[in-house]
RNA sequence: GGCCCGGUAGUUCAGCUGGUUAGAACGCCUGCCUGUCACGCAGGAGGUCGACGGUUCAAGUCCGUUCCGGGUCGCCA
């Protein structure tokens, strides 16, 4: 057997070529390969190995007539054994080429075989085949190092690397400086829940991990950096989603002496460049732009998916005088009635429509009104009798509904209507196959409201963040009607996902103080929490603004995945645990003592939480 | 915090209105096989039905609690 006790990595076993690169023109070449056994096909007198490295797979032939030793060593091989192969590339015998494999024209005739390391039978097959069942994500995460060996996972990590590289190259070429900012910083009010780090040297005090480098990048502008960017890790201790991890990566940038359009131009150019360079996809420019108010009115969301139509139509005016109490009362209470037209859906069963009604109940929708127009033009609807023929005609006209179509209406407060119909639009768009396949439909959403009213806290909170500049023309409204103030803020949206958001920042102390006041901060509070920023503004702060884009979501969309866990090497579960490292974990009493921390749980309760 | 879905062999799953010894495929082990490539053929091993409690003559199956994973609403400046 060629296997030694500890073969290490002798010089003569260093790879000379990558498995996935061998081609017909390499025939006759001596090669050394390193990799993992993907599969083994033992024909008794002849063994075929599929040898895998990160570039791909090549077939190795172990033939006792070429090398008795290599052949015998090959008997022991199993999937995921790590081996070195020395041999010669040769064209495969006519008729045995494999068109499925990039290297399928050739194979490597082995003269020597070295087992670097054996492998237990893996809990799931690393070798991927297209028809095979998907392995449960829990198992994949527990053995992530095996999962990462799968070519589909490697390809995502490589894509991610290419994108980040392209981003760095772009900013470098455009005069931006990458600057690192602290991970141990201070907790600030507003925003997400912080991850806290207890201080050993300062009993009772805590650092916070950054939710974003927001304040540091503004201070860098005060510091005269002028053009900053960073591939920045951010932390938010909030509940997880398919597109949300507790730690995530942003492309963060900030620029001085710019307006909103300047920042958008840079980001747009950067994204177009990255998509071109990495995917070879040409994003049409300019990226369409709509105001927040338009987006909410037409799509019911601030992150519209523009890959299909199905826009919302406001029919409040058409039904203002209707006999239908549900609609009229909603309008009398200051609400809206809006609808969408589902093409060809007149055939929906009562059960299907009930299901839709059920689904929008979570948004507070009291019901879903519907009118189906049968192919023969007959209307089928539980509510049609409350409307005059003229009203029905008008509704059909407004929704452009014809025979075979289904009209769906929601009445209620504007947010309920928007959320419900926005949800139905997305659901039906996918269900009816209206989504343009393979498309990347970007959109800018601009002019967000400055504040939203927080029902829990009974006060205004910043829609973007408290450092966002109001629009100049709305500044007078700040004291009289703050809820009407629009911000110099903008989001970049792709296929219904928010990729990032940014704004022009406040750079003058008195404006910043007015914003804090509008949010209900006393001057003392503002000074305690953000005194350093207000002070910085007194030393010559340039006008500035910037943006932050979610790398994980970008890669998720570029790789066609439906969750960000697949594009992160070591992601966390929905309950924010790491199944491989088993984090978070308890720590020793000594560690807690050093940190002046006493856990307020009974020891058993602390364990039960695990 | 709420709602929904799931947890059965290493993996992916089936298991009906509760009823004999819980099955299949792949994987694994043994043997055979010199042109396969999801190799093939023959044989074999492999189960805390997530956990705990309850109902019952009898529970993978019904009920309750709980843990884990996923989706989603709230939350995420």
Short description:
The chain is α+β, with helices and mostly antiparallel strands.
Provide the fold topology.
Layout (H helix, E strand, L loop, with lengths): L29 E13 L4 E7 L2 E7 L5 H8 L6 E10 L14 E12 L19 H6 L1 H4 L3 H23 L3 E2 L17 E3 L7 E3 L5 H9 L4 E9 L11 E10 L3 H20 L9 E3 H8 L13 E2 L10 H8 L3 E7 L7 H11 L8 E5 L5 E2 L8 H11 L6 E7 L1 H18 L10 E5 L4 E4 L4 E4 L14 H4 L8 E6 L2 E8 L4 H10 L4 H14 L7 E7 H8 L30 H6 L8 H6 L2
Parallel strand pairs: 3-5, 6-9, 11-17
Antiparallel strand pairs: 1-2, 1-4, 2-3, 4-5, 7-8, 9-10, 10-22, 12-13, 13-16, 14-15, 14-16, 17-20, 18-19, 20-21, 21-22
Helix pairs in contact: 4-6, 13-14
This protein binds one RNA strand of 77 nucleotides through strand 1, strand 2 and helix 2.
Number of domains: 3
Q: Going across the major beta sheet, what is the strand order?
A: 6-9-10-22-21-20-17-11
> What's the CATH class label of the largest domain?
Alpha Beta
The end-to-end span amounts to 46 Å
Write the CATH homologous superfamily of the largest domain.
Bira Bifunctional Protein, Domain 2
The backbone outline, from C-alpha atoms, is: globular
What is the CATH T-level topology of the largest domain? BirA Bifunctional Protein, domain 2
Approximately what portion of the residues adopt beta-strand conformation? Answer: 15-25%
Q: What percentage of residues falls in helices of 4 or more residues?
A: 25-40%
Strand segment tally: 22
Structural class, by secondary structure, is alpha+beta
The pLDDT mean sits at 94
Number of helices: 17
Instruction: State the major sheet.
Output: 8 strands, mixed
> What is the CATH architecture assignment of the largest domain?
2-Layer Sandwich
What is the gyration radius calculated from CA atoms? Answer: 30 Å
Q: Are there runs of 5+ residues with pLDDT below 50, and where?
A: 603-610
